[in-house]
Specification:
Layout lengths: L1 H4 L13 E5 L3 H10 L4 E6 L12 E4 L4 H11 L4 E4 L6 H14 L3 E4 L12 E4 L2 H11 L2 E5 L15 E6 L11 E5 L6 H10 L4 E5 L6 H9 L3 E4 L9 E2 L2 H12 L1
Parallel strand pairs: 1-2, 1-4, 2-3, 4-5, 5-12, 6-11, 7-8, 7-10, 8-9, 10-11
Bound molecules: NADP nicotinamide-adenine-dinucleotide phosphate (NAP).
Length: 258
């Protein structure tokens, strides 16, 4: 039951899942590290994209592994018992490398994948397959754009001189950017009233987002304001055991330990 899931998971040393590599960079990963760190050696791995990341409970390592072979070597050297891939749904390369390395070394792999979003009644959503496809569709839907695709996604919109962009990201964008760009450095969680106020203040005509899942605040605000939304579909990820939440990951690990 959900009510007991917030409690320490209650593993014991020697249960076969002592050393967990947690591929992170998400809220779920930090939450899972907090749930597990008291009972296990939990090593959270971050790519190193953020200069001042929120620190998870347990151990932390930062930086790429060097592809599938590098990760496989790390799993052996660090005597990892289980890998949990709790990376962002759009971090498909890392998820692919995790699947390849775990298969090569014979280490179990679990993915934590938050569910994607589905449109509700009255929502004006336009689903596209990629950021370039979003950029292609954009001028037909609106000229004042709220861009929430993360700083790595901003470059795809660089050619759209006819649009004005409010781009929200944790870190400033690097590389090419649109000519008419205002950057808003901020980190969630965000709530509906704030999102509504932000969109009204900037006279936003269209919202662009990746189908990241999680909080719907900006989507609810857009729906209330009649603002159309371009939703970029998730990339394909490997077919591995997956659960939707950190709490479900604890249950999976607990069952595995028996
Ligand atoms: P990606 O394209 O899937 O991965 C590119 C490379 O970055 C990987 O091959 C790996 O390098 C390294 N890497 C990625 N995640 C790593 C991790 N957790 N620990 C160590 N190395 C990692 O990844 P991405 O989309 O750039 O995302 C990077 C990180 O930001 C991820 O941890 C993800 O959870 C987080 N994040 C991503 C998004 C997004 O929209 N993509 C949004 C929020 C947070 P090697 O091949 O050298 O091992």
């Amino acid at each position: 039951m959900r009510s007991e899931l917030g409690n320490p998971p209650g593993f014991i040393r020697g249960d076969g899942v002592e050393r967990i590599l947690l591929l992170g960079g998400t809220t779920e990963a930090r939450r899972l590290a907090g749930l597990l760190a008291g009972d296990h050696t939990v090593i959270t791995s971050l790519a190193g994209r953020t200069s001042d990341p929120l620190r998870p409970a347990g151990d932390l390592r930062i930086g790429g592994f060097g592809g599938v072979d590098g990760l496989a070597g790390y799993l052996r050297d660090a005597a990892i018992d289980v890998v949990v891939d709790a990376t962002h749904p759009f971090a498909a390369t890392m998820s692919g490398h995790a699947a390849g390395a775990c298969a090569a070394v014979g280490v179990p792999l679990l993915a934590v994948r938050r569910p994607g979003w589905t449109a509700g009644p009255g929502d004006q959503w336009h689903r596209v397959a990629s950021l370039p496809a979003a950029a292609g569709l954009l001028p037909r839907l609106g000229r004042r754009v709220f861009l929430t695709t993360g700083r790595q996604g901003i470059a795809a919109f660089a050619g759209l001189d006819e649009c004005w962009f409010l781009a929200r990201s944790v870190e400033p964008p690097t590389g090419v950017t649109p000519r008419n760009l205002q950057v808003l450095l901020d980190r969630g969680p965000f709530a509906v009233p704030g999102e509504r106020e932000l969109m009204l203040r900037h006279r936003i005509g269209v919202l662009v987002t990746k189908d990241s899942g999680g909080s719907r605040a900006k989507l609810v605000a857009a729906g209330e304001l009649g603002v159309p939304v371009i939703v970029v579909d998730r990339p394909p990820v490997p077919d591995v055991p997956a659960v939707p939440t950190a709490e479900d990951a604890v249950i999976w690990l607990r069952a595995r330990a028996r």
